[in-house]
Every structure is written in C-alpha cells, then in structure tokens.
Amino acid sequence: MRPDLARLLLLGLIAAAMNLYLQLLLLTVSGWVNRHQQSVIEYLQAENRALRQQLGPKRIRWTDAQRRMLAEKARAVGRAALAELGPVVTPDTLLRWYRNLVAAKYDGSKKRGPGRQPTKQSIADLVVSMAQSNPTWGYTRIRGALHNLGHDIARNTVKRILLERGLEPAPERGKHTSWKTFLRSHMGAIAGADFFTVEVLRPFALVRYFVFFVIDIESRRVHIAGITNQPSRAWMKQIARNVTDCADGFLRGTRYLILDRDPLYTREFRSMLADAGVNILRLPSRSPKLKSAGAGRAR
Questions:
Q1: Which of 100, 125, 191, 224 has the most CB atoms lying inside 10 A of its own CB?
Q2: Which pLDDT does position 288 carry in this prediction?
Q3: Is residue 29 located within the same domain as residue 88?
C-alpha cells in the first residue's frame, strides 16, 4: 500500500473515532442537562403545590408588573406545558393576561378626545372665506363648493362654523355686518377714542381736567391726545390736526375711529378726521352698557 494512501486512511479513521466520541459526549451532556432541568421542574412543581397549600383559598394580589412578567413567560411555555407545571395562576388566567397585554399595546382610546374630531382650521377658514366673498351663498351652496374641492363636510358643520365666526345666513349676510365681524375684519385699521376726567388740587380750588385719549384696538396701545380743563371747539380742532398729522399722527394708517355721541365731537372735528381718511363710527345713543364687540351693527 502506498504511504500517502495509508496516511489518508489513518486520518479518516481518527476523524471517525473523534466524531463518534463527540456524539457520545454530547448525548451524555444533553442527558445530564435534561435530567437536571427535569429535577428543577419537579422541584418547582412541588414548591408551587406547597405554596398553594399554604395559601389555601386566599387570593394573591398581583401587581401589573408581575402580571406582565408572568404573561410573557406563559406565552412562551404554552397551555399544555403550563397545565403540567401546575402554576399558582391557572393557564387560562395567564393567557388572558397575555391577551390583555397585547390589547393594551394597540389601545388608542386614551389618545382620543370626547366627541367627533374638530374640523381642520384650513377648512374652517375656507368656509368663512367663501361666505364672505359670496354673501348670497347659503349653507348648502357652500357645502357643494367644498365638495367640488374635495372637502366633504356636513351642512350643519358649515352652519356651526359661520355662526361661531359671527356670520349670519344668506341673504341676511349680505345686508349688514355685525360689530364682532366688523372689528375682526378691520382689527389692524380701527381705533377708539374717549374722555376721562382727573381732579387736580390747585392752590385755591379742585379743578377738573378732561383727558382725551385714543387706543389702537389691535395693539391696545394708548395715546394721550390732549389734556385741558376747558375743552372747546377750537381745542378739539387742534386735537384733530395732531392725531392726523402726516408725520407723527397717532391715527396715521387708521381707517375707522369709534366715538360715542359726546357733543365735544363737533361737526368740524369729525369733518377734519374724514378729510384725513378716517371714517367715524358713532355708537348708538342711550346705551350705557354698550359693548363694542357685540352691540349694534355697522351699516
């Protein structure tokens, strides 16, 4: 026999013997591990039986973390194996805990608010824009126009949006505008004016001074236009010149000025403001509790 062939044959016999030895070793180790695991399982079963005997009819109070841990382990073991183990908790209860754990993962009820989802702000703005641009359109007509644009909302939703914005139904919407809508539409170009009095102690008497002020509705910025103890027609004309001055007048860029019906707002005073591009909005007479955002209408 050739030496190299004999060497290869010898190596094959050695490899076969080592493979058989490894298989026997693995069988021995796996058998020992199985016997050890079976001993551990039998001990745990005996311990569980002893614990149940100690507990008797007493109910165990499990925490949420303990239920979660037992449910995850029980799912991997299975119902049949759990029945053989004899756990403290029944297999049905353990698997029910697991189902509740899965259901809680996909439970989105806590993220939902009560009632329907609110209408998107962009759609609500579109409804208001359509109503303002088309005063003769009713709720159904606006709903149809929105449907053509791919927005399907109910007629009552259109009605609710317009009522919340202070817009009346057609055809009343095209006839007049409420103060609330008027103020919101012209918030950046509207101001209000009024008087208040201050009592000043002079050397020989208590003198009442009249303070005329103007307030910008949007920014709430207040400007003291003039102070005098004897308001007159000439003084009011000078106030009109000051507040409408093209360089530093407080009413520059203002289109509307809200005034009450005080006789100090003379015809000359109102005319000078009108010549400067400021429209006068006079409040209704005999209305001591008037609120500028809700009373009357701007014709």
A1: 191
A2: 64
A3: no
**Same domain (yes/no): 157, 232:** no
- Tell me if residue 232 falls in helix, strand or coil: coil
43/72 same-domain check = no
Q: What is the DSSP letter of 172?
A: G
163 in the same domain as 194: no
Range of the domain at 67: 63-104
Evaluate the CA torsion angle 172, 175, 179, 183 in order and state its sign.
positive
What does pTM read for this prediction? 0.40
Find, among 193, 179, 183, 217, the residue nearest to 265 by Cα. 193
Of 168-177, 239-248, 286-295, the least confident: 286-295
Closest by CA position to 95, among listed 107, 80, 109, 108: 80
Give the whole-angstrom CA distance, residue 139 versus residue 129: 13
Characterize the bridge pairing of strands 297-298 and 256-259: unpaired
Q: Treating both helix axes as pointing N-terminal to C-terminal, what angle do 155-164 and 139-148 enclose, rounded to 10 degrees? A: 110
CA dist 116 and 127 (Å) reads 19
Question: What is the rounded distance in angstroms from the CA atom of residue 155 to the CA atom of residue 162?
Answer: 11
